[in-house]
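notes to self, project folder thing:

trying the whole complex as one job this time. last attempt i did each chain seperately and stitching them together was a nightmare. two parts in total, labels are on each line so i dont mix them up again. if this works i'll redo the older ones the same way
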Amino acid sequence: MNEAVFDRLRRLLGPEGVERDPRGLPRAVPESDDALALVCQAAQDAGWRVRLEGQGSWLPADAPADLALSTCGLHRIVRVSPADLVCTVEAGVTLEALRAALAAEGLWLALDPPGRSDRTVGSVVATATAGPLRQGFGPVRDHVLGSTVVTGDGRLVEAGGKVVKNVAGYDLTKLHVGGFGGFGVITALHLRVRAQPAEDRTFQVSGPREAMFDAGRALLAAGGSLAALELLTPALAARPQWTLVARLVGTAEGVAAEAAQLDGASGIRWAPMPEAAAAALWNLVARAPLDAELALRFGALTDTLDDTMDLVLGTLGEGLLATGLGTGQLRWAGEADVATLRGLRRRAAEREIPVTLERASWPLRRALGHFGAYREGVGRLVGRLRETFDPKGVIAVALEGADE
Amino acid sequence: MQALAADTGLVAALGRIVGPRWVRHRGAELATYAADGLPTHESPPGIVVLPGSRDEVARVLRLLHLLQVPFVARGAGTGLSGGALAEPGAVLVTLTRMNRILAIQPERRRAVVEPGVVNARLSEAVAPHGLYYAPDPSSQSACTIGGNVAENAGGPHCLKYGVTTNHVAALEVILPDGSLARLGSPAGEPWGPDLVGLFVGSEGMFGVAVEITVRLEPLPREVRTIFADFMALRAASEAVSAIIASGIVPAALEMMDQSCVRAVEASIFATGARTDSAAVLLVEVDGSPAAAAAECAIVEGLLRRHGAREVLVATQPAERARLWQGRKKAFGALGRIAPDLAVQDAVVPRSVLPAILDTIAEIRDRHRLQISNVFHAGDGNLHPCISFDRRDPDQARRVAEASAEIMDACLAAGGSITGEHGVGSDKMAYMPKAFGPAALDLMCEVRRAFDPDRRSNPGKVFPVHVCREWRRGGVA
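result (full assembly):
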């Protein structure tokens, strides 16, 4: 089987387009979306299971499959348009490559997802992993204007557009943002970018959890314009106490004005961070989940955050938890077994809080699913949509849990 | 499709669900619902039913599912794409009775509303809590949140704060078979794939939203409105490009051309603006007082550098309202010029605004039409407004031709055929120009995941011939 798949891929893509992963599995590395579509069509015809891969640095490349399909051959930055604040990139472009290309034009992608900086843009979008900047600039979906996708049965489809406002047709791109590949392979993206801010400053303060939490909430209630506001556990920040971090981004005058109000609005004294120290701290927040076996994302309402933090820490132990006090996004990284995670999800569901499995080994993903059980009426819709985009189940992905 | 009005059995059955007084089936009653905000399309529905609760919506849809009768959901009927028109063989499910704000949660910055709640009423209701609902379509004093969800409505202030899809956290939806689906979560984090994102803007073809959880924004601490007039249209549009490229994201960035300014100044909405300007810009910045002041100074400088003749800045609500008046009342003023007004809606990359305005002027001259431009310049969302008299077939033909040429020009520039009004009945013909066959096929198939029988708002968005399943011999 393995050899037959390898030979078929060689015939489709040429010798350059196929390699073997460390365990000997054939890995297709198409260099165009058309070629990628051919791989999916061949997989559908032959009944192969395909595992999707970017750099393999976020989701482990461990789903059982007949072949791996890598987006790393799709590494072109197609277009950067400073006047329109839009760029078009192929899905295999790494974050660091994109950031460098944008910086050369005075532009900035306001996304700081967890993981390594060589993560592919496609992976960030497919997993909808936003970081602390979600506070000021929205979740990943807000940055994606359009997409090109190859469906499980090999159809090449462009959805959305490359303008910042567009309601023509159904917004299929929304399914691919955070769809974990369940609705096809993202091959290219039109992204909204911003002019590099004139000023970008980070402030921090450490103390007991309750004091930090209250200060952060007071700051938000005062209506400040914050790019990020994260509460970090001592383990995550590698400090004896909890750490509250605020990031201000904008014009020099605007940032100075916001900074001047931090202490008064929150009732505590903030310390400005030197640029290098701030970069190191945000990098620590991004890299923390890589030190753990799994990463979970919780979406809580801001008035239930405290309770949600209790639930997470009480069930899973302190671990590495970063809480967006304004976004309600909690990201926990650590280790836990299937039964514990099922129980946690059940209790979170009672509070109407979704728990997304962002990063885990295949056995955990298979058992729990990225999303677990759905709310009323949703499972049937997702099932039909999966059939629409991938009728033969070519793509190896576990959206729902095995026993739910 | 056969007319339903004579189906006394269906009329009676619907009456048993909602009460007989909430079922309309006589000619004159149906005529009221024959059009929405689009003047060029009309179609009286077969029966109109006005459910008063989510339970009644579910029961109505279950009945229609059993009988396999198509239906169209409708809010206030202010839509501009003919999206809420129903044919005589369909039931129009009008949601204006479902106008309750079910919950206001200031601490969470959320409100839970029924679909018939009027957009502006929601902002009024939450204002005492220092909050507002950001999407502000021009029709906000009449249009409903349910309609906004169907069309993914925008508005002047969506430049900074996003359109409807950015402000809907969760939806409770009655699917076309009468079953309930709960999409999203109160916090706004998708619960599974982002079905809220897929549903918003699906133009009523996936089902009926009966409960909508929206995000609310804190009222900005400081707002500055900047008015500038220009003696050349190109200079104004270049000023727009410069503001966007500066990195500032204004709360709003709107433009009106000379034809529009003159229409306003000739109306009861006159603001005293000089009518010899080629274009005016309205820019709004907000945030902390210091940040707003800093951004205001930068914007003022850019406007002057790009040739603004006069720049006025207002900070007080009354002064700001005066500067906004011309823009807010523009469509009303334009409506006085001729019996009919075709409000187009298209989007271009912002960098091509100067060129596309030249192109529209050339199309206007060639077709001998009056076209006024009033639009959301900051996000490249054009609204060329064509004044005409539809009783004159030659004029109507020229309007249709000019509209098509404008759409072609916007698509050729890398834009979209609609930024906020939707495709509806009006723009179906352009869909094959905007999307390839694979995307159109897939959209039709996605619709079937929600509505396998294709009974929810049938015949909209996709021309019948474009979908593979229909080309294979199915029926619409």
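what i see at first glance: The radius of gyration of chain A is 21 Å.
need to look closer tmrw
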